[in-house]
Design brief:
Elements: H1 3-28, H2 49-64, E1 69-73, H3 75-78, H4 92-99, E2 104-108, H5 114-122, E3 134-138, H6 151-168, E4 173-177, H7 186-202, E5 210-213, H8 246-264
Parallel strand pairs: 1-2, 1-3, 3-4, 4-5
Helix pairs in contact: 5-6, 6-7
Length: about 270
């Protein structure tokens, strides 16, 4: 038997041992952790001075009053407080018409995503003196912006928000508005459509107190949003179309009014 022939079995055994050792090492090595989903976290913005002041002001409003209607969301909701002077950002008269006699409070914060709303709810924005009768929730647009969570990640953030409201106020109805179409990027448009499809098909399951409404027609016709229905192009410098004009937001209030009036048990405004 040649020397090479005598070595072949030893080489084969060495190879098998090396493969076995590699397999053991691979099994023992820690697997990389999946990145946390920011959309379901609680994230404070208290280090932002204007946000801190607004949060404190809204806490004082909650402590001082009794409210039947709570609008909860981001800058689109906060815009209800704008008073012009241009007609395209004169929102306050529309708010006064629909909600002025309904003991309503505006809990909209510019730039907030689901994680910021979850922090607010856990730190005082559910501390009402009596249960509100209706929450109108409009959130998710900013998840696709600076937070950059996609539709699959954003959906559980929205679900946690409505569930947190219900856990505190089991008799309160929640009206969830789908994320408005915008003209920002193809990725954002695709994720907006995907998220809204998920909300329509699934989120009401097991939640009889939850109502979901598509109000996208307020910012455009079939197929694509209408730039003229957004205030952002009017700004100097202009921004990508995201926020409805006062007229478009009036259409949103008009569209949800049958549901709002039915829940509150009063006349349609």
């Amino acid at each position: 038997m040649t020397r090479s022939a005598r070595l072949r079995p030893l080489l084969a055994i060495s190879t098998l041992l090396a493969l076995a050792a590699s397999a053991v090492a691979s099994a023992a090595a820690p697997k990389p952790k999946a990145a946390p989903n920011l959309a379901i976290a609680q994230v404070s913005r208290m280090d932002t001075p204007w946000w801190h002041r607004r949060f404190a002001d809204k806490q004082a409003e909650i402590a001082a009053g009794q409210y039947d209607v709570v609008w909860l969301g981001d800058s689109i909701t906060q815009n209800w407080e704008r008073t012009g002077p241009e007609p395209w950002r004169d929102f306050a008269p529309v708010w006064q018409h629909y909600y002025g006699d309904r003991h309503a409070i505006n809990l909209g914060f510019k730039g907030d995503s689901t994680c910021h709303v979850l922090w607010r709810l856990a730190h005082g924005e559910l501390d009402f003196r009596k249960p509100p009768r209706l929450f109108v929730v409009m959130i998710g647009a900013n998840n696709f912006g600076h937070v950059h969570t996609d539709a699959v990640q954003t959906y559980p953030g929205i679900a946690r928000i409505v569930d947190a409201i219900h856990a505190r106020f089991p008799t309160t109805q929640v009206l969830l508005l789908e994320v408005l179409p915008s003209i920002r990027s193809a990725w954002i448009s695709a994720n907006t459509s995907q998220l809204n499809g998920m909300l329509e098909s699934d989120i009401r399951r097991g939640r009889p107190w939850l109502h979901v409404q598509d109000v996208g027609a307020a910012v455009g016709g079939p197929g694509a949003p209408d730039r003229s229905r957004f205030l952002d192009p009017h700004l100097t410098p202009p921004d990508p179309p995201l926020h409805p004009t006062a007229a478009a937001q009036q259409d949103i209030a008009r569209m949800i009014e049958p549901t709002v009036a039915a829940i509150l048990g009063d006349h349609r405004h």
